[in-house]
Amino acid sequence: MPILEAHNISKTYYKTEETIPVLNKLNIVVEKGEILVLIGPSGSGKSTLLNILGTLDSDYSGNLIIDELPITNAVDLSNIRRHKLGFIFQFHHLLPEFTILENLLIPQMIAHNFSNVPQKATIDMLEIIGLKNRINHYPNEISGGERQRVAVLRAMVNKPCLILADEPTGNLDRENSQKMLKLMAELKANYQQSFIIATHDQSILDIADRVLYLKDGKIKKEI
Ligand SMILES: Nc1ncnc2c1ncn2[C@@H]1O[C@H](COP(=O)(O)OP(=O)(O)O)[C@@H](O)[C@H]1O
Ligand SMILES: [Mg+2]
Question: Mean of the pLDDT values across residues 74-93?
């Protein structure tokens, strides 16, 4: 059963004098519980595609279906993003004024209208990444690798069915990249989430169920 289907996705950027065609009638299907890795040269459109699949960019042509729901103008996108999707970016974008614990609670408070947020379960998740004793620290008081692992947890706290990650290990050294990948693989095994990960980090291929190669606006091959 697919968690996401995208059919005939095309996208062109228009600048004053230039048109930049990026995606050309591209098709992609992601199954539930699958880690799909998207590779391709810099500028091939990986980030553009992730933004479209994550409903962050609606300026494209083609059809997108998330968890059996066709994405149309009538759909409440923020509701889908809040409940069904999680995002991990190269730069973690944790909120600097809030503690580690608060950074994880805030998305849950938003999703659940500020009631019934499971604080203990969140602290238990922090234990998985070895940061239980840092819950009251601020993002600038932990290392880059630790922040990035918090960002992975933050993408997962609402138990989204699909997580989109854009170069999630892009700013990490090898050791921290390995920890991140291990965490994503563990979380996938525990919660059966699907992932789409755009990267040029070869080590991510280790946790991939399927690898797609993006070039010239299309999926060129499945590896
Ligand atoms: N907002 C934008 N306006 C114009 N061109 C863009 C914009 N964002 C990306 N592009 C161009 O689209 C192409 C694909 O970019 P991107 O999706 O960022 O590729 P990747 O993530 O694979 O490196 C590149 O040629 C890039 O310069
Ligand atoms: Mg990119």
Answer: 88
Write the residue with the smallest CA distance to atom 14 of ligand 1: 45
Name the closest ligand to CA 43.
1
Tell me which DSSP letter residue 132 carries: G
* Cα 217 to middle of ligand 1, angstroms: 11
Give the C-alpha separation, 193 to 94, whole Å: 22
Output the CA 45–ligand 1 centroid distance in Å: 6
- Residue 185 has a pLDDT of 87
Report which of residues 114 and 182 the model is more confident about. 182
CATH number for the domain including 174?
3.40.50.300
Q: Whole domain around residue 22: which residue ranges?
A: 2-222
Give the binding-site residues of ligand 1, using a 6 Å CB cut-off. 13, 15, 20, 22, 40, 42-48
Structural domain count, the chain:
1
Confidence of residue 93 (pLDDT cuts 50, 70, 90): confident
Give the residue among 5, 71, 53 at the shortest CA–CA distance from 165.
53
